[in-house]
Amino acid sequence: MFWIVASTIVAMFMAVVMIFIRLRSSKRPTSIKRIILPPLFMSTGAFMFLFPVFQVRWIQVLESLSVGIIFSIFLIKTSKFEIHKGQIYLIPSKAFIVILFGLLAVRIIMKIIIGSTISFGETSGMFFLIAFGMILAWRLAMLYKFKQLEKKLE
Question: What whole-number percentage of the chain has pLDDT above 90?
């Protein structure tokens, strides 16, 4: 029970940090580098799967990534770009904060339900994959939107 509570607190802290980063980053023009680096940095977390306690079955991998991709739809819909003074900016959405905390609440509820039937390590692995699937799909969609606007600038 301690680990579920601790990981939930960490997830909430990360959500708050992400909101502040997103709001700050909207003041500067975006770039391909700023879009693709977050999933690359997050991918290092996959090293957790080297340890047997975190390993999950392939069906769990597919389920987790699918849920992450479904969750990303909300983030994709609220990520808008705008051309301002010849540069591309990510426009902050007021719905982003609500969506982010809503997704966090759904993940917490899922974690409580799933955590009662499988081990903490497997639950951790699955929720890493959900988060990774979500950020990867979201950032790929952002990259596509960015490239479309970049073509308009040329």
Answer: 47
SS (HEC) of the chain: CHHHHHHHHHHHHHHHHHHHHHHHHCCCCCCHHHHHHHHHHHHHHHHHHHCHHHCCCHHHHHHHHHHHHHHHHHHHHCCEEEEECCEEEEECCHHHHHHHHHHHHHHHHHHHHHHCCCCHHHHHHHHHHHHHHHHHHHHHHHHHHHHHHHHHHC
Residue 92 has a pLDDT of 76
Residues found in the chain = 154
- Which pLDDT does position 91 carry in this prediction? 86
